[in-house]
Amino acid sequence: MTKISRSLLKKIESVYPTLSKGHKKIAEFIAEHYDKAAFLTAAKLGETVGTSESTVVRFATELGFDGYPELQKALQEMIRNKLTAVQRMEVTSIRIGENDVVEKMLQSDIEMIKSTIELVSRKDFKNSVEAINKARKIYILGVRSSASLASFMAFNFNLAYDNVVLVDTNSDSEIFEQTFRINKEDVCIAISFPRYSNQIINALRFISDSGATVISITDSEYSPIAQFSTYLLLAKSDIASFVDSLVAPLSLINALIVAATLGKKTEVSNNFIELERIWDEYQVYDKVEESVNQ
Q1: Are the beta carbons of 6 and 35 closer than 8 angstroms?
Q2: Is 92 contained in some domain?
Q3: What is the mean pLDDT of residues 23-34?
Q4: What does the alpha-carbon distance between residue 53 and residue 42 come to, in Å, rounded to a whole number?
Q5: pTM to 2 decimal places
Q6: Which of 119, 180, 204, 231 is disulfide-compatible with 124, CB 3.0–4.6 A?
Q7: pLDDT score, position 57
């Protein structure tokens, strides 16, 4: 259980004896059905437990929150890594209802990107770029759904750098076999979003002990990989059915790729000049313009 979940549940438990009858109903519902409560509006939560919307808002204030949205955010943070795939499907059904799925999902992604703009530390971002460009080797690590993000980053970095290692995460032993030489001259970019994998946590414990610089890309300071970070880059993700939306993390990774390669502009430009020659010689890409004109 995360730090935020322990503190929230402990707070509710500690104030429970002093709560009014209506507030106790809310507290009991949250304790028993936190997965549903986290995505209910104040009005809907009040209706569900038989109280008013204003009672729900006052309950949030009683717990020390500025309002219900802040309590709801804390609840969502608490459950992100606790929901099963089936529960995620149920949550998605509650949130979307009869709404247009396309509009709902795209609007949600827009909000995640906006939140990430405010959330990401510019200082840690700048330090991450500098560390990447000074590194002897750049190790990129992501497991399960985050593996696609790691692969995307490694593909683009490989075009600019000759020292990139995309860690194969097919098994625990392979992770350690590929990273056992990592040291303080290296950088490891670790990517993890709910549901967090124990595989990456164990790997980062070893990598951190080796003295390497760890750049963690994750969704919260309460993420289990945050504790190993030299630099922490936060990007908001959101529950989208049994998977998470990773649009904002991908945008942040794009920004990191652009900033890092701009730091080695001349070297990267020379690489692409040579690559363009090779691509052209071996007809890697279709000559769209020529075929259109013919």
Answers
A1: no
A2: no
A3: 90
A4: 5
A5: 0.73
A6: 231
A7: 96
pLDDT tens track for 242-258 = 467 789 999 999 999 99
Residue 59 lies in domain: 3-79
Cβ burial 103-123 (10 Å sphere, 16+ → b, else e): eebeebbeebbeebeebbeee
Average per-residue pLDDT in the chain? 86
Q: What pLDDT sits at residue 95?
A: 60
Q: Are residues 75 and 119 in the same domain?
A: no
Among 61, 79, 97, the domain-final residue is 79
Omega into 195 within 30° of 0, i.e. cis?
Answer: yes
Pair type for strands 243-245 and 238-240: antiparallel
Q: How far apart are CA 40 and CA 141, in angstroms?
A: 35
pLDDT at 98: 64
Contacts of residue 80, defined as CB under 8 A and 6 or more positions apart, other chains included, come to: 194, 195, 219, 220, 239
How do residues 213-271 score in pLDDT, each as one tens digit?
999 999 988 788 999 999 999 999 866 554 677 899 999 999 999 999 998 888 888 98
d(C-alpha 224, C-alpha 202), whole Å = 10
Do residues 152 and 51 share a domain? no
**pLDDT tens digit sequence for 157-192:** 998 899 999 998 887 788 999 999 999 999 999 999
Same structural domain, 254 and 187? yes
